[in-house]
Amino acid sequence: AAHPAWKAVPLMELETFFTVQEQTRLFVLACLAGIPLGMLYDGLRILRAVFPHGKISVAAEDILFLLLWSIQLMGFVALFARGELRAFYAVGNLLGFFLYRLTLGNLVVHAVRRVSGAIRRLLHRLFRPLLSGTMHLHKKICVKFVRIRQNTKKE
């Protein structure tokens, strides 16, 4: 019940602790919030499989991922937990992340790697004649230019 501004509020109504049921619900929500994090990281893994790149780029992607995770965690705390950060939210996120990665995530990344490998092999087979013809033409042109240059130096 609402109390007038001038009247003292009973101490029990000022309770700010989460009940066990609320904490359980928050933990389950934190676990569920870890699933999109796993999907995001799988996106990075797929990007790395399709377009291999160096250690610095991988480190930058990982730092970006951690930044996005921290933003997600703060958003979770603001939306669901009255702004009260608890360690079990991060633990729940990690649990959901790893459960996704160890189950559906591995299947998705494996499938994408197989498909991208097949596409690479197909493109290689299709363009190999073109590349070999281009390389043959390149060699002939280089030989001609070398001869022309040598002849101009002699004069």
Summarize the structure.
By secondary structure, the chain is mainly alpha-helical.
Question: What are the SSEs and their pairings?
Answer:
Blueprint (H helix, E strand, L loop, with lengths): L19 H31 L4 H26 L6 H68 L1
Helix pairs in contact: 1-2, 1-3
Q: Into which percent range does the helicity of residues fall?
A: over 70%
From the helix content, strand content and strand pairing, which structural class follows? mainly alpha
> What's the average pLDDT?
85
The fraction of residues in strands falls at under 5%
**Gap from first CA to last CA:** 106 Å
Low-confidence residue ranges = none
What is the H-and-E element order? HHH
What is the count of helical runs? 3
Verbal overview:
It is a single chain. The protein has helices at 20-50, 55-80, 87-154. It is mainly α and 155 residues long. Helix 1 (20-50) runs antiparallel to helix 2 (55-80) and helix 1 (20-50) runs parallel beside helix 3. It is elongated, with a radius of gyration of 30 Å.
Describe this protein with a few key phrases.
mainly alpha, elongated
